[in-house]
Amino acid sequence: MTIDEKVRKTLAELGATDAAGVEALFGEVRAAMEQERSSLVARGASSEAERDKLCKDLRDRWLARKNGLLTQIDEHWLKLGAKELKPIVGRQFNELRKASAGMETNELAQVVPLRKETSASMAQLSAQLESDVIRAERGDVSDLTLPGYRRPLGSLHPVTQMQREIEEIFLNLGFWIESGPEIESVYYNFDALNIPESHPSRDDWDTLYINSQTVLRTHTSPVQIRAMEKYGAPLYIIIPGKCYRHDNPDASHSPMFHQVEGLAIASDITFADLKGTLDFFAKKLFGEKVQTRFQPSFFPFTEPSGEVAISCIFCGGEGCRVCKESGWIEVMGCGMVHPQVLRNGGIDPEKFSGWAFGLGVDRFAMLKYDINDIQLFFQSDVRFLEQF
Ligand SMILES: [Zn+2]
């Protein structure tokens, strides 16, 4: 029997025939009142208007002159009570009255908080929680006290970390970052870079062709031409990005890999600037003790061209497995930009000169983190990736 039903019956009907029975009944009423009050306080309201309404509703339920619970108790328990019980019922009723002072609308409004959250989301949340609790009580769901799902935080891929480190060094030297399309025309990928029709790199065993005039770029160098056309000279840029070649995947080859290209063009650029910049770069990346070595090489887009090696970072130049006992590790190609390439980019080689270099980011990351298989970068194995 609810409180609402009980207050409509007489004490005799409720079986409260002595002081103890009466006290127990009033105890029940006071507990119900306190419980309804504190649940409203805990629930709060989403607006002042809602708060005022909730407070007034609760006040009227208990204290309304006509049909409030206290009026019912007065009518049925006090006025219709047995004569010998009147003193105790009167005393209990007075105590209940005093306790009910906190149920006045104004008193309630002072303690019912306004919620910051939108009422919709809170209502949804509490409805969800209620239904969960009800289902749990029926035994429909498993233990609600089980810990929640933990979603592990990711981190930057080691190749991305390496790329950002390289970018940072050149950004501090005053270079800016330029990018270009990975699907590139044969003109930008080969012709404009002075790579002749007969060059083996154009072979479709080396290059992934989309059609006879379109390729997946085999290096980031096409962006050199695009940037020259766009900005002219002077120009100081680095070009990080993905490249594609017709390579079978093995420990040191991947059909998709990452390059960073560097290009500096100005009126008085020499090979000494190139050497100085790359030596500074190598020391920043691998440590002050690292030395650089330049050896002649050949690329169609630079003249003269060079191959850059750094002193072995594993043995310090003594000779080891990684450097194949030579003490040196080749890390990139470089050279002075070929005059024809400058012309193709719309820059007068009589007025300006420039240098360029290109390096493999994946290979740098393999060196830096001592990884012996490039495939590990692209297998998305969390056991590998979470080490960085
Ligand atoms: Zn070594």
Question: If you had to describe this structure to a student in words, what would you say it looks like?
Answer:
By secondary structure, the chain is of the alpha+beta class. It has 2 domains: 3-116; 158-385, Bira Bifunctional Protein, Domain 2 (BirA Bifunctional Protein, domain 2, 2-Layer Sandwich). It has helices at residues 3-6, 11-14, 19-43, 48-63, 69-79, 86-99, 105-111, 119-138, 158-172, 186-189, 222-231, 271-286, 339-344, 361-369, 382-385, and strands at residues 176-177, 183-185, 209-211, 214-216, 235-244, 256-266, 292-299, 302-311, 328-337, 353-360. The longest helix is centred in the first third of the chain and has 25 residues, at 19-43. It is rod-shaped and about 120 Å long. The mean pLDDT is 91. The structure holds zinc ion. Zinc ion (ZN) is lined by residues 312, 314-315, 319-320, 322-323.
Mean pLDDT: 91
Q: Specify the helix fraction band.
A: 40-55%
Biggest beta-sheet profile = 7 strands, mixed
Number of separate helices? 15
Number of domains: 2
Shape field: rod-shaped
Strand segment tally: 10
The fold-level CATH name of the largest domain is BirA Bifunctional Protein, domain 2
CATH architect. name of the largest domain: 2-Layer Sandwich
Major sheet: arrangement of strands:
1-5-6-10-9-8-7
CATH superfamily of the largest domain: Bira Bifunctional Protein, Domain 2
Residue ranges: pLDDT <50 for 5 or more in a row?
A: none
The CATH class of the largest domain:
Alpha Beta
Percent strand? 15-25%
Order of helices and strands: HHHHHHHHHEEHEEHEEHEEEHEHH
Distance between the termini: 65 Å
Name the ligand types.
zinc ion
Class of secondary structure makeup:
alpha+beta
